[in-house]
Amino acid sequence: MIRSIRETGGAQPPPGDAEAHRLDVLRSYALLDTPPERSFDDLARLAALVCGTRSAVVTLIDEHRQWFKARHEFSLSETERAVAFCSHTIEQTEPLLIVDATKDPRFANNPLVTADGGLRFYAGVPLRTAQGEAMGALAVLDRVPRTLSDDQVEMLKLLGGQAMALMDLHRERTRRAMQEHDLRSAHETLDFHIINSPLAVIEWDRDFRVVRWSPRAQEMFGWREDEVLGCHPTEWSSQWSFVHIDDAEAVDAKMKDLLQGLLPRNISVNRNLTRDSEVVHCEWYNSVRLDETGGLNSIFSLVHDVSERSRLDAQLAQREQQLHRAQKLEAVGQLTGGIAHDFGNLLTVILCNAELLHDELGDNDRLRRLAGMITTAGRRGSELTHRLLAFAGQQMLEPRPVNLGSQIASMHGMLRRTLGEHISIELRGGAGQWSALIDPGQFESALLNLCLNSRDVMTDTGVLTISSGNVVVGPTHAAVQEGLAPGEYVLVAVTDTGAGIADEVLPHVFEPFFTTKPQGKGTGLGLSMVHGFASQSGGHVLIRSQPGHGTTVEMYLPRAASQAGADAGQAMEALPGGAETVLLVEDDELVRRFAMSQLVSLGYRVFQAGDGPEALQLLARHPDIELLFTDVVMPGGMNGRQLAEKALARRPGLKVLYTSGYSADVLVHDGRVAPGVTLLAKPYGRQELAQKVRMTLDARQPAAPADGTGRDAKTAHYR
């Protein structure tokens, strides 16, 4: 039985970094526990023959054991390091010779010696690397005492050198096998990534011929690998048709930079053409691969198909442009809306005083003509104000169900006189048309604007076609027409046979003050007003045009829930008046003075106030007030609607007539006058004022409001 190290007093491994380094070197040879090799076995047998011994071994010593790489006539495969003779051999540079181990104090009690037929003779040479690290030993063994001649010792040393050489050879073979394995693994990994990469992989040699062409490259561009390997692009595509002609010069310059060694890598974004001449937007990531001497070996390209991203970028740029245009229109609209509101107050005074002056001048024809000119100019200013408000989406609409076919037919005579005899007008409309929910007066203005635009582009002769019909817009159609929501519409299309609109002009036609007409021939508000009217009505406008083939403008107007009925608005007698008491509330002094004089001239008894609190005081002092005629937008913390609510809470039978020149107030929702509200839009003339006041006073007696808010009040004002 082999005894422990302490029992045998065997050699201990040297401590410290030197032993750790030796063990690292030993393991680097990768010989421990490897299968027998004939070269080592032959070397051991030759050592035994040369030295005349019974046995020979080649051993390796690690931290715990001695392991036999080769054994000749020796039964053990390994032993503990503590009992190993070789543990002593590796600690010296010269061979270790033990003639009779039983007489050597170091080995006398060694179990390898004391066992039956144990070792008596040992001669071993250390196996050292070129750097001096001891790996193990080549040793000859015998069961009887003996010695070696000097020649035998020299031969043993030579054979030890051969054993070390075999170990070095084994190490080199192992290292190369590992390198080949790693290289093969790297190639397999690279091939795997190239085959499965979402990027096309293309490699070019120094003459710009294809060295590598991945499956993704074939999928992206259409050419097979066997068609392009070893070829320049001009050999497998006609004269650089692989690159879009507009990008060829830039691509050629970038590739020259790489080929001439000016850059180690670059990125090229360009358009390529497939085998079928389809355009592919690509990002090329090009890198130079150098050889051992630093010269150019090849160019390695990774290609990313960014066609979808380019499409989305183009869409995003278009959306940003549309957003910018919308923001610009909104900003201009807010400005024009505010200007139109103030301008409306001034025009109200100008118009009504001009009309009054015209009537009071009697037989003075010259002065009456001057007053008439003022009135005409004022009405043109009023029309411009309405156009500005329409463009800004702030005109006040009073929509109701309207049969557009009948409405258009009623305009036929007026259009014929307006457009001139050189324009032929065709009206087209099918049976069973739905009613549209629109303001009929604003629709007529919009349609007239479109017809006048068409007339101006048909200078000699032409045909103007106005068609109307039902249309259902589905999600697919709406998705490709920004601003058009799915739903049911009545479509009104105005088509002319004019010169058409140039492509660069078409995106701007709805912009305010944009016009291609000569200076003084147009305001540039016609189409923007049409666009504002349609949008504010809950519809949309589209324009289609082709130079030389005319223009079509389509108005999509929302379908009404009910069909059009008889027109309730009957014309009233000229300047109807009355004797009722009216409370006039207006913060603009000029407008208030004008309205006061007009109401008095119509026979009404009038009290006036500049704000809401003053009006409530007058209402409390004069119980005979029958009509509250109030501006909507007023200073002082109380607007017209709030005033009306407080007044109706105190006087449920009171009639209310509002006036305003601005839609962004509490009576107008999405540009439409709230149901039950009676509103006189600014600027207004004497005729409009007289008719609205009389109509409001003659309306059905309202009931008391349900609550203080007026929102649920069942009155003629807040139904």
Question: What is the number of domains?
Answer: 5
User: How far apart are the first and last residues' alpha carbons, in Å?
Assistant: 116 Å
Residue-averaged pLDDT, rounded?
A: 81
CATH domain class of the largest domain:
Alpha Beta
Low-pLDDT windows of residues? 1-10, 566-573, 702-719
The largest sheet has its strands arranged as: 3-2-1-6-5-4
If classified by CATH, what would the architecture of the largest domain be? 2-Layer Sandwich
Overall, the morphology is elongated
Structural class: alpha+beta
Largest sheet: 6 strands, antiparallel
What is Rg? 53 Å
Kindly state the percentage of residues in helix. 40-55%
CATH topology of the largest domain: Beta-Lactamase
In the CATH hierarchy, what is the superfamily of the largest domain?
Answer: GAF domain
Describe this protein's structure.
This protein has 719 residues and is an alpha+beta fold. The protein folds into 5 domains: 5-175, Beta-Lactamase (2-Layer Sandwich); 197-305, 2-Layer Sandwich (Beta-Lactamase); 311-392; 404-558, Histidine kinase-like ATPase, C-terminal domain (Heat Shock Protein 90, 2-Layer Sandwich), CATH 3.30.565.10; 581-698, Rossmann fold (3-Layer(aba) Sandwich), CATH 3.40.50.2300. It is 40% helix and 22% strand. It is built from 21 helices and 25 strands. A 6-stranded antiparallel β-sheet has the order 3-2-1-6-5-4. It has a 5-stranded antiparallel β-sheet with strand order 8-7-11-10-9, with helices on both faces. α15 (440-457) packs antiparallel against α17 (526-536).
